[in-house]
């Protein structure tokens, strides 16, 4: 290739790349239009959670990381729920409903818990297959963070302070 042509194409390529990156940053992913049915038979839609920061946490009773982070998740909920945080705990399809209920009661989980027995919620969130996995949505319903593995609660609290104006 002609060196002069190469030099003239480089700035064009960089401008296109920068434009693509900016578009990706501004292309916020909206929350899926999902209805959660809790283990106590309440229905909660993502649309009804608008104007709240929502953390959807996929977990399982046989997941050591999930069990490890649950006390801190409870504490975070208790601290930030009055300011507008909602947490929805989605138990994975392979989990037994009796184990989910027993764990939820023994740990006195203060947030809504649902069992995704038909894997519909897993599918709507992009085929979640690892636990714990958390999705955090801002008050407008757009994804601001996805975490596979245990949450960093120091970073999470900073994010919640920013998003909730606390």
Task: Describe the structure in your own words.
It is a single chain. With 166 residues, this protein is of the alpha/beta class. It has one domain (29-164): Glutaredoxin, CATH 3.40.30. Helices cover 41% and strands 20% of the residues. It contains five helices and seven strands, in the order αβββαβαβαββα. A five-stranded mixed sheet has the order 5-4-3-6-7, with helices on one face. A two-stranded antiparallel ribbon has the order 1-2. The longest helix has 24 residues, at 3-26. Mean pLDDT is 90; it is low at 21-25.
The geometry reads as: globular
Instruction: State the CATH superfamily name.
Output: Glutaredoxin
State Rg. 20 Å
Q: Which structural category fits the helices and strands?
A: alpha/beta
The top-level CATH class is Alpha Beta
Q: What string gives the helices and strands in order?
A: HEEEHEHEHEEH
Q: Could you tell me the mean pLDDT? A: 90
Q: Quick one: how many beta strands?
A: 7
Largest sheet: 5 strands, mixed
The CATH architecture can be given as 3-Layer(aba) Sandwich
Tell me the fraction of residues in β-strands, as a range: 15-25%
**Order of strands in the sheet with the most strands?**
5-4-3-6-7
Find the CATH topology: Glutaredoxin
Count of the domains: 1
The low-confidence runs, each spanning 5 or more residues with pLDDT under 50, are: 21-25
Helical content band:
40-55%
Quickly count the helices.
Answer: 5
| Distance from first to last alpha carbon | 57 Å
Strand and helix layout:
Blueprint: H1 3-26, E1 35-37, E2 43-45, E3 53-59, H2 64-80, E4 85-91, H3 97-106, E5 113-115, H4 120-124, E6 133-137, E7 143-148, H5 153-164
Parallel strand pairs: 3-4, 4-5
Antiparallel strand pairs: 1-2, 3-6, 6-7
Helix pairs in contact: 2-5
